[in-house]
Design goal:
The complex is a heterodimer of chains A (121) and B (108).
Chain A (H helix, E strand, L loop, with lengths): L2 E4 L3 E3 L5 E8 L8 E6 L6 E6 L6 E3 L7 E6 L4 E6 L8 E8 L8 E4 L3 E5 L2
Parallel strand pairs in A: 2-11
Antiparallel strand pairs in A: 1-3, 3-8, 4-5, 4-9, 5-6, 7-8, 9-10, 9-11
Chain B lengths: L3 E4 L2 E4 L5 E7 L7 E6 L6 E5 L3 E2 L7 E6 L2 E6 L9 E6 L7 E2 L3 E5 L1
Parallel strand pairs in B: 2-11
Antiparallel strand pairs in B: 1-3, 3-8, 4-5, 4-9, 5-6, 7-8, 9-10, 9-11
Chain lengths: 121, 108
């Protein structure tokens, strides 16, 4: 069955970078897009962007342009989300989610368990 | 940015009763709407996509309806495991998919 497992919690100082991983199993990794969503405490979820594991093409929300990079490693079926120049407002739980259908699809069918990123001096 | 507004913020319903959750889009999104369930300590779960299509494994008591700007999620007979926060999400407006602020469904 499809499984999506994320890396553990992180604590970072303002101005630093964080890189969260998301490892998938149970299907052909390159057939399905991944999306990243974050949710700060008490706030609504916020869509950040996507990556196509087949070729590595990406698309980001304008809000994160210049600070966000998504990559993938097909040898380990892992996608990564790196956010730079962290500030306190980036404190949130970050989720990766696999799309439901193969090819371009923005319906989030399989979610990781979430990674809490805390930005604090 | 398309703003998604969910109502009510909190809904109190008894076991076995029907729950109706609403989601409104600030502009038309056709039927490009999904509903997710998020129980505390668990991963979010896709319930409905395309406004009315149940995802794999979702019980028939969950149903979605609507198009354009007005959408509804109905849970026909509430079970204990249904008490959670529910989010709607529009995926019509690329590259800015947006979520509602959520409806917390609690036991009355």
């Amino acid at each position: 069955q499809v499984q999506v497992v994320q890396s553990g919690a992180e604590v970072k100082k303002p101005g630093a970078s964080v890189k969260v991983s998301c490892t998938a199993s149970g299907y052909t990794f390159t057939n399905y897009y991944f999306h990243w969503v974050r949710q700060a405490h008490g706030q609504k979820p916020e869509w950040m962007g996507f990556i196509n594991p087949n070729g590595g093409s990406t698309g980001y929300s304008e809000k994160f342009q210049g600070r966000l990079t998504m990559t993938r490693d097909t040898s380990t079926s892992t996608v990564y989300m790196e956010l730079n120049y962290l500030r306190s407002g980036d404190t949130a739980t970050y989720y990766c989610a696999r799309s439901q259908s193969s090819g371009w699809d923005s319906i989030l069918a399989y979610w990781g368990q979430g990674t809490l990123v805390t930005v604090s001096s | 940015e398309i703003v998604m507004t969910q109502s009510p913020v909190t809904l109190s319903v008894s076991l076995g009763e029907r729950a109706t959750l609403s989601c409104r889009a600030s502009q038309s999104i056709s039927r490009n709407l999904a509903w997710y369930q998020h129980r505390p300590g668990q991963t979010p779960r896709l319930l409905i996509y395309g406004a009315s299509t149940r995802a794999t494994g979702i019980p028939a008591r969950f149903s979605g309806s609507g198009s354009g700007t007005e959408f509804t999620l109905t849970i026909s007979s509430l079970q204990s495991e249904d008490f959670a926060v529910y989010y709607c999400q529009q995926y019509n407006d690329w590259p800015l998919y947006t979520f509602g602020q959520g409806t917390k469904l609690e036991i009355k």
